[in-house]
Design goal:
single chain, 137 residues, Multidrug-efflux Transporter Regulator, Chain: A, Domain 2, 65% helix
C-alpha cells in the first residue's frame, strides 16, 4: 500500500499542510499513526477525500455539512435522493443569502446616494448618522 507524507498529500490535494492538519482536528480526515521515524504516512485515498472537502466547500457547504455528506457517502442505506435533498437545501440557503446581500447592497447604495460626495464634516455624514440611528432602534 502506497503512503504519502503530509506535504505530498497537501500538494496533490491543492491545499496547505495546515489545512490537512485542520481537517484532522475537525475529524474530516483521519490522522494516521506515526511511523518509527516519527513521520505520519497517509493513505493515497486521503488526497481524494481532501479534494472532496475542498469542492464541497467551494459549493458553499459548511464543515458540519461536509462531515454529514462524508458519513452519508459510506452509509449503505444512503440513497441519491438523500444527497439530492441536502443539495436542494443548500441551494435554498444560497438563494436566501443572495437575497440578504442584495438588500444590504441596496441599503448601502441608498446611504451613499445621500452622501454629499464625501464632502463636509464627519459630524454631518448621512452614512454614520444612519448607522447610529439604526443602533437606537
Amino acid at each position: 500500500m502506497e503512503t504519502l507524507t503530509i506535504g505530498k498529500v497537501a500538494r496533490l490535494a491543492g491545499v496547505g499542510v495546515e489545512t490537512v492538519r485542520f481537517y484532522e482536528r475537525q475529524g474530516l480526515v483521519e490522522e494516521p499513526p506515526r511511523r518509527a521515524s516519527g513521520y505520519r504516512q497517509y493513505p493515497v485515498e486521503t488526497v481524494s477525500r481532501i479534494r472532496f472537502i475542498r469542492r464541497a466547500k467551494e459549493l458553499g457547504f459548511s464543515l458540519k455539512e461536509i462531515r454529514e455528506l462524508l458519513e452519508l457517502r459510506i452509509d449503505p442505506k444512503t440513497t441519491c435522493e438523500d444527497i439530492r435533498r441536502r443539495a436542494d437545501a443548500k441551494i435554498d440557503d444560497i438563494a436566501e443569502r443572495i437575497a440578504t446581500l442584495r438588500r444590504m447592497k441596496a441599503a448601502l447604495e441608498r446611504l451613499t446616494a445621500a452622501c454629499r460626495r464625501g464632502r463636509g464634516p464627519v459630524s454631518g455624514c448621512p452614512i454614520l448618522e444612519a448607522l447610529e440611528d439604526g443602533e437606537k432602534s
